[in-house]
Amino acid sequence: MNIQIKNLNHFYDQSKVLSDINLEIMSGQILSIIGPSGCGKSTLLRLIGGLEKPISGEITQIGSQSKACLNPITYIFQDFALLPWRTVEENVSLVLEDHSLSLKNKRAIIDDVLDRTKLKDFSYALPKQLSGGMKQRVAIARALAVNPEVLLMDEPLSALDSQTRELLLEDFINLWDRKPFTAVYITHNLSEAVRLGNKIIVLSRRPGKIIETISIEKPISDRKSIDKDLDEYQKHLWDIMHDEARAADAELLNV
Fold first, then answer.
1. What is the pTM (predicted TM-score) of this model?
2. What is the CA radius of gyration of the chain?
């Protein structure tokens, strides 16, 4: 399933947040979105996910969802959002409880996602017993359990230390490589953007509009933490981000 965005504009009160967004999110690809703070990245994600309705413009889902899909669009946030009184397995099973699945099917789904996210040995652990990285793995497993057509990820690694972030980034790439899925990935981290994105869009300072679109042909599974092929992309993105961030700061000082 593709998602097509046409002529999207959004306001909060009299303040314009997003301006004339035109974009297509392709099935089986990861779209990275970057931009200075306050440019409307998270707002765009909420609009794509249907949590808010745009003031003007269209967001259209193109194509039918697979029979195995239980929820076409699913979120992963930076704060994990786990229920502290539920075990790892019970947190994952939560998203299946409103679906008319047999116990056998539920068991198979839970076992599959726990295996894919390397959590089988922690099935009966409570969130308080887990590290930040492990908690985010649970959040990823829970999202994958409904086999979404599109995964919306709002800075999912930003609350983690650099070592944990790198390990989880590798795990996420391995997950995608085993079974490619469609994802929109918001980040301030340019390294994450070029490691994960089949396509990267750069939003300007508010009101956010697309000022650059970059496609990276190198397979995601072949991209490394130190990768000369990606250096030029990252440098180019930083040049754009640097200028936009400076301009945004200058505007705030002049308010």
1. 0.91
2. 19
